[in-house]
Amino acid sequence: MGADPDVVAAVRAALRAAADPTVAPGQPAYMKSAMPYHGVTAPRLKQVLRPILAAYGPADRDEWEATVRTLWDEATHREERYAATALARHRTARAWQDRAALDLYRHLVVTGAWWDHVDEVASHLVGGVLAGHRDDVTPVMRAWAVDDDLWVRRTAVLCQLSHRADTDAGLLRDVVEANLDDRSFWLRKAIGWALREYARTDPDWVRAEVDRLGDRLSGLSRREATKNLTGSRDGR
User: Fold this and answer.
1) Average pLDDT over residues 177-202
2) I need a surface site. Which of 7, 22, 175, 176 has the fewest CB within 10 A?
3) DSSP secondary structure of 86-120
4) Contact predicate 185/156, CB 8 Å
């Protein structure tokens, strides 16, 4: 079964109707995006998509995935990809948030290849799959942490951002260590961010980990990691 053409058409029409030509020109420059924008701000985008998502009910998994892929792969404006991500997170898709969904999410990460797409997919979609299927997905995240693709590695580092007390500290340690030598800003920032978020739950573990890693941790990663560590000599 293919994509739902009515949903695809409704999303495109709604975005065109909501377009703001006074906002659109500045958005690609800010996001360093080759793909143009309609000029629909994030709050307005949620408002525009709300009735479409409320009425949406895919017949099955194949239709849901095909609709997400169509909106994503055939996008002419960046907001269509944001809409595709919202559709991927749709409440009716909860039953399909499993290891089999990771092929779709990897596709979004690799072809999106920028922080606005990747971080949403990592923290909400991949993170949700991991939370619900740890035995199946944890080995996949360890493999993603050493992938050739920078953004796949960033996804592995950030996938537990919202897990708090349910964070697998062993997995967090492994995905961080796998990327310590990467000089990319995007990996170093992600490492610090992941550690900083977990410090809200277990500051002692993060403090010990920062000390253990020592100079292997970049200055950027260390500064980010210690922001929530009160009393740390590196805290801010």
Assistant:
1) 97
2) 22
3) HHHT-GGGGGG-SGGGHHHHHHHHHHH-SHHHHHH
4) no
